[in-house]
């Protein structure tokens, strides 16, 4: 039984459901909202409501958008011959932060995971194939995460797209900048050795 008022306990319980937010952090956030000016709490509530009401998926790439096309798909300066396949919109944002990729994206909506009963039919693979057929894509970059499920998804996609007449590449993997060889795991070291390049 909690000693907190029911509305406060409810906010803490709801905040605790968010990723990486434990009960203590949720409690700190709830108390912060109580101390903040009322308009700050109201603005947060309104922003969350608008998020659910106004955000949808882009018709082309399935990134998050406010209209039919996301800002990337509607940007005429993007290289339309280059398509990067990612698992989720958060992965797309990470790549965009680098400023290095100037092509388009395709968001799968997850990865293959037999243990979670997620097969190819639960991902946006058919939509990817349709994009390749209707658009002049020269290269598809597979940018799934380098974990077991991401690797399985990349292998599946590479095999599936092999007959489409498009170049299929995979993001390079290896040592992080500023990393220490002594503390690097074996798989990362092996991939760094296999993916070495001329200097």
Largest sheet: 4 strands, parallel
Shape: globular
**Please, how many domains?**
2
Radius of gyration, in Å, reads: 21 Å
Percent in strands: 5-15%
Total strands = 6
Oligomer: single chain
First and last CA, distance: 64 Å
Helix content: 40-55%
Under CATH, the topology of the largest domain can be stated as Dna Topoisomerase Vi A Subunit, Chain: A, domain 2
Q: What topology, given as strand order, has the largest sheet?
A: 4-3-5-6
Look at the structure and give the mean pLDDT: 91
Task: Identify the CATH architecture of the largest domain.
Answer: 3-Layer(aba) Sandwich
Structural class: alpha/beta
Q: Which stretches are poorly predicted, pLDDT < 50 over at least 5 residues? A: none
Care to describe what's here?
The chain is α/β, with parallel strands linked by helices. It has two domains: 6-54, Helicase, Ruva Protein, domain 3 (Orthogonal Bundle), CATH 1.10.8.420; 78-170, Dna Topoisomerase Vi A Subunit, Chain: A, domain 2 (3-Layer(aba) Sandwich). The chain is built from seven helices and six strands; from the N terminus they run αααβββαβαβαβα. It has a four-stranded parallel β-sheet. A two-stranded antiparallel ribbon has the order 1-2. A hairpin with a 6-residue loop joins strand 1 and strand 2 (64-65). The longest helix has 17 residues, at 38-54. It is globular. The mean pLDDT is 91.
Write the layout of secondary structure elements.
Layout: H1 6-16, H2 23-35, H3 38-54, E1 56-57, E2 64-65, E3 79-86, H4 89-98, E4 103-107, H5 125-134, E5 139-142, H6 148-161, E6 167-170, H7 186-194
Parallel strand pairs: 3-4, 3-5, 5-6
Antiparallel strand pairs: 1-2
């Amino acid at each position: 039984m909690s000693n907190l008022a029911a509305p406060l306990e409810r906010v803490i319980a709801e905040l605790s459901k968010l990723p990486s937010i434990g009960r203590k952090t949720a409690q700190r956030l709830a108390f912060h909202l109580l101390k903040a000016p009322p308009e700050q709490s109201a603005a947060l509530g309104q922003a969350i409501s608008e998020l659910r009401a106004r955000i949808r998926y882009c018709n082309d790439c399935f990134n998050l958008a406010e209209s039919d096309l996301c800002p990337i798909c509607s940007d005429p300066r993007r290289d339309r011959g280059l398509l990067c396949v990612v698992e989720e919109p958060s992965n797309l944002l990470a790549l965009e932060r680098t400023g290095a990729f100037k092509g388009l994206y395709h968001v799968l909506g997850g990865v293959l995971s037999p243990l979670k009963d997620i097969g190819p039919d639960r991902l946006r693979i058919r939509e990817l194939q349709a994009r390749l057929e209707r658009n002049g894509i020269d290269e598809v970059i597979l940018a799934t995460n380098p974990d077991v499920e991401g690797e399985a998804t990349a292998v599946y996609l590479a095999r599936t797209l092999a007959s489409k007449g498009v170049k299929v590449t995979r993001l390079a993997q290896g040592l992080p900048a500023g990393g220490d060889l002594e503390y690097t795991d074996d798989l990362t070291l092996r991939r760094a050795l296999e993916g070495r390049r001329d200097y």
